[in-house]
């Protein structure tokens, strides 16, 4: 099998059970429920189901390489909505699970006949997902594979290596002159995903990609390739932060759907800063949406639950929630309540002990902490309103949000957003805990006007740059230039 760890007896039992198949209920987002016979292909790369009423219809397939996450119980937005509508019962939680796939943009909601079958499928699927992830298969899957009569994805026969051919390649291309037939056979056993080809000691194009992307053939040292190897004890301003712009959008900035699962996608890929544009919602519940556009809103609380679920799966380093606050005082209080209730001890609510208050804490000191970044205004004076109007981002569209509820204000510990000013003004008025946002056009103007002054500001406080509003598809601006000038948060 792929990877260095062979599946144990529990996993083998799960895979065997999945290949036999199980009759489960498929829940569509419109609330309709369909019984389907789900099963795993013998090649262990696809799950599918039979449609009992359409015998000649091609089976629907879900490729393991496209699955992002398995959630047990009723922990998806759709299942929660069914629960509120009473189209599903709380006691069904032990039999329910959700398959998130296609970069968290799609969901498959299932209930098994009993908890035992549900748990077998979850165990098997998690093993297969991990196997693909470990091998690099999810990033290097072949796009030109052809289907055989059974709809199983197989590579072209001319693109397979036997043991002798693999030995020849390793000797002449990789200069491993001491390679033996036994070692080549073990490589095929380790990296070939198709069980039938593996039993024949054949390596197809996908298995070859797995081999070449493995640690053994990696140009980088394994410890450097898969985890931070730099010194992470310097102030936060010394690092570039993996950042998402308009995180809640799956499509354009003007129309289309927003989806709370977009936050899962970003965090699981290693993102450490996400964006939430918050407005007053119905029933006193804040929502996240994109200004006055046709993009559908998401509940703030739903997004925070998803963030908590996925915060530390890819990294233990801090997560920054950039909250563009357009909420009224009561709903600001509700935002603070949700953040405290859901994130608990992970939410940073007070400054860390330090011997040097003039610099920000390090990523190491902030491990497993969530930091809130937003504007901090006590009352709408004429001077603060003028400053806000000159700040390209985070300017309030709701006048009530110009005053902050103290519960929300006290969460702004290290990242209080202020308008960008020149070096002399910043040195006299801004501390390390105050950050500024610049759109790409204003960034270009500032670095052209005073490049050295801009760099000096980034040495002690965080500067955030983001794409201009004309990019309706949320495409990235040229981020090499901001990186050159040491901007820490570059939205791409």
Automatic annotation (TrEMBL):
InterPro entries: PH-like_dom_sf, PH_domain, PI-PLC_fam, PLC-like_Pdiesterase_TIM-brl, PLC_EF-hand-like, PLipase_C_PInositol-sp_X_dom, PLipase_C_Pinositol-sp_Y. The keyword Protein transport does not apply. GO terms for molecular function: phosphatidylinositol-4,5-bisphosphate phospholipase C activity. The keyword Hydrolase applies. Keywords: Cytoplasm, Hydrolase, Lipid degradation, Lipid metabolism, Transducer. It comes from the Eukaryota. Residues 408-478 form the PI-PLC Y-box domain. It is found in: Cytoplasm. This is Phosphoinositide phospholipase C. The lineage of its organism: Eukaryota, Metazoa, Spiralia, Gnathifera, Rotifera.
